Amino acid sequence: MYSILKLLLFRLNPEKAHHVTFSLIKLANFIPGLPALFRGLYKIEHPSLKRTVFGLDFPNPVGLAAGLDKDALVFNEFGNFGFGAVEIGTVTPKAQPGNDKPRLFRLIKNEALINRMGFNNKGVKAAAERLKNRKRNGPVIGGNIGKNKVTENENAISDYEICFNELFDVVDYFVVNVSSPNTPNLRALQDKEPLTKLLAHVKGLNSKKTNPKPILLKIAPDLTNEQLDEIIDIVIQTKIDGVIATNTTISREGLKYTAEEIAAFGAGGLSGKPLTDRSTEVIRYLKTKSNNAFPVIGVGGIHNAKDALDKIKAGADLIQLYTGFIYKGPALVKEINKELIKYYNAKTN
Description:
This protein is an alpha/beta fold.
């Protein structure tokens, strides 16, 4: 089914295809019987798949990464495709258009994407309003939060605080995003001093709540081992609940394109198959060097069940899809969950 739709969608420019896909998903939700059909085709419920991570119960370990449903438009519908969790965002306090178009590119030879979207979203209040319509039996919802482009780094804490407060009642966990390469100077917030200050502040806000939510940090794959050591220290020091590894990369290594073609794509974060090995390396490093001190959600270049299992074996407690889902469709979610059942069963027997 998806292979036919993909042929049509890939004739459109990537951003247009994204909007068409969302329109089709929303339309399908109103056609009697289709949501149930999708659940029958793609959703697997099995005791072996259930995971409890940072205090939350996940029906299965496969989540949708942030960036696809930025504005919380079809999070309920993604649950029909078998996802155990959906991470919305990145959202910012104020609506912003993002970077100039074109800003999203398919690298079909590598099953990859380059994006320089720039946190385009309608603002956190709009997302929070839509999230009030969550289904009780829907996926776990994460809220990925960031700062507006016009906000200077020294004032970034206030942006994260606004997003945290607006989303608190409508998401299950938070992700502090300081690792996108598409907002000027954002990655500088990964440095030890500003990151410690930011996470400690969000943790402080959370501690004042009667029902604190898990707080995670999303990091870049381009960090050195020394920087990853600092991340480990910061996570333990601030006592946040985990790490998402990893965001997109600014590297262009391993691409099946000429230097001129790569230059024509321009700046932006690379996702998909070229990121597979590096993201797995980061997961393994974090888990090994921290002595498994905190949960890690693995994301980056998962295009088949083996990629998913490699991340689980490297130490990932949960995984997320983005580019692989665009190239492979919802059947990928089912394929991964079927293999995970076998893997988990084999471990317990």
